[in-house]
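Case study 2.
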Amino acid sequence: MYKAVFLDKDGTLVKDVPYNVAIEKIKFYPDIFRPLQQLCQAGYKLIVISNQSGISKGYFIESELIRAFDFLTTYLGGHAIPIIDYYYCPHAEGLKEPECTCRKPQPGLLMQAAQEHAIDLSNSWMIGDIMADVAAGNAAGCKTILLDRDQHYRTEVESTIYAHRPDYVCGDFFDVWSTIINDKN
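Prediction:
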């Protein structure tokens, strides 16, 4: 069994441009590169987990999304950051969809990735910038980090208004790396 770091895409790895599949608009956060390289060196498999309701809403088609994900994985691979796979939920919250178990905060995508890649979820992490990412990681049995770059959620998390709490709250990817490497739980 392998250990993994599951990564949300928008707002975590790349700047959040709503419903973006245009490669020229994909802008990586500069703090992700060295920490992700170090996590790979520490034996973690990297897998992207993303809600992509733009498909259901008709904003883009699946082939455009796949092209954007392929760009992301190729670009990061060129920086010695192998993304071994990516998973996405095409369903939109609130629209009449078939019973969806893949849209975060549901754990379906993490469970699917764990099965397909022999991932030990109890030794893995879910990193994301919103509480739905945390909830999906918690439900899958992963440790969780809320990446709170602008400290928008930090006060709310500390006041316990959320049913799902992250194991850690970090302000940048250097803090994410340090937290994972130094975690003793």
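The CA atoms of residues 22 and 95 lie 24 Å apart.
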